[in-house]
Amino acid sequence: MSYCEEDLLPVSALQHLVFCERQCALNLVEQAWTDNALTLEGSHMHRRADETGARREMRGDMIVTRGLALRSLRLGLSGRADVVEFRRVSPPSDSTAELADMAAGIPLPAASGSWIPFPVDYKHGRPKPDRSDEVQLCAQALCLEEMLRVAVPCGALFYGKTQRRHNVNFDVRLKELTETTTARLHQLIASGVTPRAVREPKCERCSLLERCLPEAMSSRRSASRYLEAAVAESLAEKKSIG
User: What would the mean pLDDT of 63-85 be, rounded to a whole number?
Assistant: First the structure.
């Protein structure tokens, strides 16, 4: 299956989908988004990754590119990579050995030798208990593989809180998970239906908490009881102010 340009969905939506399908639908189906301290910090990190230094920088056997546009018609995804490091896998030469190495890499304009892409995604917090960040990074790698026709075996996630990189291998299981998640993303958006809210501890970190209202939609709490509690809370606040 191949998608059209107008059907492409953002790579970043995969992270939201793994974290919470309702959050993802609120963003893409209902076009709802609210920033909080965490999202603002994350946006600042992405801007720094994109704006620090030149968009293409040579560092020995590495070429660092920032803000590289990504696309996969097979997966129906598009986006932009924070950083892609192109790492030299063969020295510049005219030998037949270099020609053999080219099968494992690609040539780059104005650069001799053969190169392998290594995507790096910047995150503001800490490593997550789920695989949402890995899925998003793997999707970037799959886009690069399709665009450049080269294998992308690994990449890295950089977390702002720890100031450390975590290397990620794009093995068969992660690629399968990424493709399954991508298919689910297209199904969710095509349905136009926002899933019901389920209150979980992770809701406290969500910038859409006030829009989502998981407490109001909880099966353990009726709408009438929720409204009664909300009215009582409002009256109590007015009394305290008065």
Answer: 96
Lookup: tokens for 1: 């299956």
**Amino acid 56: pLDDT:** 86
Q: N- to C-terminal Cα distance for the chain?
A: 64
- From start to end of the chain, where are the E strands? 9-10, 56-59, 62-72, 77-90, 106-108, 111-123, 154-159, 164-169
Contact 82, 66 (CB under 8 A): yes
Which residues form the domain of 163?
Answer: 5-195
Task: State pLDDT tens for residues 90-133.
Answer: 765 544 444 444 457 999 988 889 999 999 999 988 999 899 99
- 77-86, 97-106, 140-149, 176-185: least confidently modelled range: 97-106
On whether both 179 and 220 belong to a single domain, the answer is no
d(CA 140, CA 67): 12
- Same domain, residue pair 51 and 99: yes
CB under 8 Å to 97, separation ≥6 — which residues? 90
Number of domains forming the structure of the chain? 2
Cα–Cα distance for residue pair 124/169, rounded to 1 Å: 21
